[in-house]
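Researcher: We plan to redesign the surface later, but first we want a full-length starting point. Tokens attached.
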């Protein structure tokens, strides 16, 4: 029993040391930006807008990988609604707001450090009936989304000054530069629209919505989406070979995912399953969304195990078959 407890202590200590070392490495390799200050360019404090599209802009900070933006209504001292809490990359961001008073704050981040927030700053959106400088806030499908169905329902936020909406479907992901418009629907009184399937197929599309009232209309807001109806190729296992006798409880599994053979070549990832029986009646371990064609796994106990892999593309299509089931024996 003493040996058993000693082994547990050693394994626990090594695992803890590894985690501490890993955390320390992240801190070492990331630049410490905690004392830096983010330089905000837009909006200015107290700025009032007659358009509902707000441009947030700042000077990108050396060492920052993304930026956290928060927007509340009407103020942090009296939060009635938390409008936005998101991470973005780059030095600018656009967001559509309804008329009202808001406060926002922004900070820079990386995996190890973060700056203090700049702000909060106040902005206000005026209520105007002229839609020419307004935009509609689209909700789904999100921009550049992959879909594995011809059943596509588009939705957007209601605009306070709109009487109706116009919907357009265009070929290609770039709505503004596409001259091919296979479908238009006007006089929409709701904030959802189901695209007729006869206008859709496997390929790339974009959709746009604009608000209309008796006196004016907004510009189109648009998102792109890709329809992929084809399952990716089956996976081929490469190593270890079937009936492999490992000399270690840590095994590196490798396979070949292949490609998406359809008209649209969606990004493909892998799913691996490990089991202690050949029929996989119980799954010991599953790992999803594997980008690389390999996985390292450490078994807790000696014995015979089986592994298999299948492919899944960005649209959610799954390979027709699992790979073969290979057996591995660990000491």
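Model: Full-length starting sequence:
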């Amino acid at each position: 029993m003493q040996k058993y407890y000693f082994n547990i202590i050693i394994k626990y200590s090594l695992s803890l040391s590894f985690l501490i070392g890993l955390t320390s490495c992240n801190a070492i390799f990331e630049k410490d930006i905690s004392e830096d200050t983010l330089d905000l360019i837009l909006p200015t404090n107290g700025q009032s807008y007659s358009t509902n599209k707000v441009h947030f802009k700042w000077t990108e900070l050396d060492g920052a990988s993304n930026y956290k933006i928060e927007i509340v209504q009407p103020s942090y001292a009296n939060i009635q609604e938390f409008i936005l809490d998101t991470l973005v990359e780059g030095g600018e961001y656009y967001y559509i707001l309804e008329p009202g008073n808001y406060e926002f704050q922004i900070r820079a981040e990386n995996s190890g450090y973060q700056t203090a927030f700049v702000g909060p700053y106040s902005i206000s959106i005026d209520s105007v009936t002229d839609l020419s400088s307004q935009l509609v806030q689209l909700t789904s499908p999100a921009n550049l989304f992959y879909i594995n169905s011809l059943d596509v329902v588009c939705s957007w936020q209601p605009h306070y000054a709109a009487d109706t909406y116009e919907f357009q479907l265009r070929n290609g992901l770039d709505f503004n530069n596409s001259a091919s418009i296979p479908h238009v629907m006007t006089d929409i009184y709701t904030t959802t629209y189901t695209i007729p399937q006869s206008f859709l197929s496997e390929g790339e599309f974009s959709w746009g919505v604009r608000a209309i009232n008796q006196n004016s209309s907004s510009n189109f807001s648009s998102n792109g989406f890709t329809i992929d109806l084809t399952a990716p190729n089956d996976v081929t296992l490469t190593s270890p070979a079937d009936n492999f006798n490992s000399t270690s409880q840590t095994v590196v599994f490798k396979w070949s995912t292949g490609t998406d053979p359809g008209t649209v070549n969606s990004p493909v990832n892998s799913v691996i399953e490990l089991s202690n029986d050949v029929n996989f009646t119980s799954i010991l371990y599953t790992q999803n969304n594997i980008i690389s064609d390999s996985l390292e796994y450490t078994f807790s106990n000696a014995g015979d195990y089986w592994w298999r892999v299948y492919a899944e593309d960005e649209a959610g299509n799954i390979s027709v078959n699992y790979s073969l089931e290979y057996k591995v024996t660990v000491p």
